[in-house]
Structures are given as structure tokens and as C-alpha cells.
Design brief:
Rossmann fold; alpha/beta
Length: about 140
Amino acid sequence: MRVAFRDADYAAIPEHNRTFAPFRGGGMLADGSPECEIVESLRPQRDEIVVRKTRFGTFSTTSLSPRLREAGIESLILAGISTSGVVLSTVRDAADQDFRIYVLADACADGNPHVHSLLTEAVFPHQAYVISTAQLDQLA
């Protein structure tokens, strides 16, 4: 999953969108720019799905859900920056779509450590299994 905007994406952002409206004129996170590329150490393999998104949630502006279903994928392992944004939005949507969800608490981060703890300890466990990266080997 990567965030990147094209001209039509900028134009589609309503002025009342508190988070993304400031992106409208500046070309921030423009598709093709270095900041939108996946870092070398996390480069996907040829058979892995890569999707471009334009909002916090993984599913709202992408074709990811049907692609996962077509591939027979029922479980998701989530990690990322913005526990209160990207991860929260994705957990909620994935749960509504009946995916089995694992959140890697120690591979997520938030600008507010208290919010990160609240989400991983009190909110996410209602819809996801919250585990550490050390526990990944135990999943089969």
C-alpha cells in the first residue's frame, strides 16, 4: 500500500476535508515522486499486490478488497504509521468486510503515544488480534 496523488485525485478532494484539502494545490505526495515510492527494504515481490491510495483507509479509494478476495486472502497483518489514522481506518473497514485481522502493535506508531496505547490495548482487540512482530512466527 502506498499513498500517492494524481491531478484528478487532488481535484476530487473537497475543501471541507480537514486532512487532505491542504494537499489540493501543493503537489504534496504526487504520484511518481520519491516520497511516494516504497523503500527498498520493503519492496514487494513480483506476486504481491501493490495498491495506490488517496485517503487514510486502505479500502476506501482502492481496488484492494476485490483483489484480496480473488486471491483467496482472508487474513490481514497490519502495520503502519498513524495508528489513529491509517491503521484505525483499515482495522474498522477490514472488520466490516469480515477479514481476520492481526495488528502488529510494535510495528505501528502514532504522534500521540497515549492514543497508540489506547487503540492497541482497548479498541483494536474488539475487532483484531493485537500481537507483536515477535509473534508473527506463531501464525500459520
